[in-house]
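Margin note from the TA: students keep mixing up input and output lines. Inputs are the sequences; the output is the structure of the whole complex. Example:
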Amino acid sequence: MALTGIEIYKLLPKTNCKECGFPTCLAFAMKVAAKAVEISLCPDLSEEAKQALEAAARPPIRLVTIGAGERKVEVGNEVVMFRHEKTFYHPPGLMFRVNDTAAPEEIAKLVEEVASYSVERVGMQLELDGFAIDNKSGDAAAFANCAELVESKTDLPLVLMSSDPACMSAALEKVATGKPLLYAANKDNSDKMVELALKYGCPLAVYASDGLSELAELTEKVSEGGVEDIVIDPGARDFAQSLTTLTQLRRLALRKSFRPLGYPIITFPGEAAASAEEEALLAGQQIAKYAGIIVLDRFSPSVAYPLLTLRLNIYIDPQKPIQMTPGVYQIGAPKETSPLCVTTNFSLTYFSVAGELESSAWASWLLVCDTEGLSVLTSWAAGKFDAEKIAKSVKEFDVAKNISHRSLVLLGKVAVLRGELEEELPDWKIMVGPLEAMDIGGYLKQHWTA
Amino acid sequence: MAAVEMPVEKWTGKVHEVRLGGEGRKSIVVGGETTLPFLHFEGSIPNRIAVAVEVQDQEPSDWATSLVSAWGDVLRDPGAWAKKAAEFGADIIVLRLRSAHPEERNTGAAEAKAAVDKVLSAVDLPVIVLGPEVAEKDNEVLVAASEVARGSRVALGNCMEKNYRTIAATAIADGHVVIAKTPIEINLAKQLNILISDIGVPVDAILMDPTTGALGYGLEYSYSMMERLHLAALQGDAMTAMPMVCTVGEEAWRQKEARVAEGVPASWGDHEQRSLLWEEFTAISLINSGADIVVLRHPKAVEVVKATIDRLMSQV
Ligand code: SF4
């Protein structure tokens, strides 16, 4: 947490020597607190003061990187409890568990399916993030072989799951260059796990399920041992417990600046779930409520798609909804007789409309009005999508120059706009299209005659 | 080191409690929370989050085939449909008077009365009656519904900015509850609650519907709006403290992901599971952001969402 002016003042030499360009140390401290000047302007800072200031500048939840390649996952460094207060920055990594007891063909198949999974939404490709290799066998060679097999098939980050340092070491010999997350140090093995994390430069997960005090004690021990990149597992496995514990952890980090628990959290929603659906729903809760890495037990596209969609929804910056640049867009190769549709620059509206026109093979002109990225209904309610605005866009983008007709299809639930728009654009025929994007094709087929 | 001290927020406000039903039928109370969703260590969540099931007064012509086959023949009769919904575990029946929509059959007061009567006599659960969401028609059919349901303390929806007066007056006269619906916007929601209170509806007879965005279709707007409303309520603003109703089923099942089985990308996966999850994800996300009643469509979603609520309600 940022220090106040007084707290900074206490760390300064208090000689009022003016070297920093300010008349007093206090005046300087105030400016530093307001982030107007850099602390380094004071030449006489003690080592101790430097350390204290550096510690205070650290984010309340550490940013931890898992993996090494292009697809490495960065989690942590969140600054708010609720997304409307600012935004959530680092979407949780969605990883899939691979048991080292499974047959190699089975493992290869799962890895291939997960790694190649990709789904498009609002012009983005959404993908999954990695694998957690579980040392179910308890055998070092089996674990190492499994890790090597997975690594040979994918560049995605890995989590190595074993509480036996000997097994962990065997796997690390094969896959350490990928900087996997080591899961996990517990109260019995932490010294050895710290050694391995330091030796290979890997992040280390810390597990304690008997209370947050024990967990904090253990992370302090690990951090004193020299490992800074920590991920924590408080052992919360079910809906209510996960919500409570993860909320407490986020609050301790943000509201109390409690360093020993200021780390991203790893969860295992499949462990208390009786079905894929249940697991998916708990993972969904954990996306919204404070997980950093989510390890899933069951993969299927019908689960991955809603999960990735939810993650996109929750982690979109509420201050900056994805927007399209207003203007006239061509769908397919429109001719002068092709339909003209009008909608907002809310990206979701644009992509669902454009996608539907494309898939129903309607080459058309799509006029996107500036509604500050709000959807048709919300922008209309907020007075940002009205007849005047549409009329202005029609003129501004000189829509008429491309087309021989004067018909305009209004999309969304805004039939109320028709009357006003007819007044604003007297030469135009205003048509009210369907509420849902998916019905556009059918609507045009029925009503478009130009 | 010392034991970690749990941060506990001292909230001063509370979500109003609203009762539906009673007098010969089952009653249910929603709201009353003095903390954020399911943070049992910090405050009380005295009433379970309710799962309502949507029933329509005419056979839906545009429902996904998986929904239609899950319900079968009862879709033709609101009474039978409501009964089946009760068997599937509904806490509340929502009757949508869809036939009154001018673009449907434009039915009037008589048909509305008949449909409400059918549902009320078929089940002893609390009931919510929704109009077609066309202001003049809502006034017409909800006034009729209000009369028939006198004594059953139903919720009438929706009161919108344009037509709250008539519906609110009827609700006061017949002892019902109203639902105040606004497009996803915190000030609009608060303003409408104030207007409705000002004309005499007590705060224990107002529910609010801040408008539901389905997963992938504006969910994040509803999610954050509801968190803000709930936080404002806990901070003591009585005019944002109405229990929230979310029309989850209606919104989720309108989306292509739920409705369309063929001709979609392979990465969308199995249609049956995807469509159910679309409804369930929307429900659980909104329950976690402060919903008090979720209105669902698929019987399987009712089962799964209820089981999840049980788990969230259990003290850790
Ligand atoms: S340079 Fe340092 S010691 Fe000198 S006045 Fe500025 S803050 Fe104080």
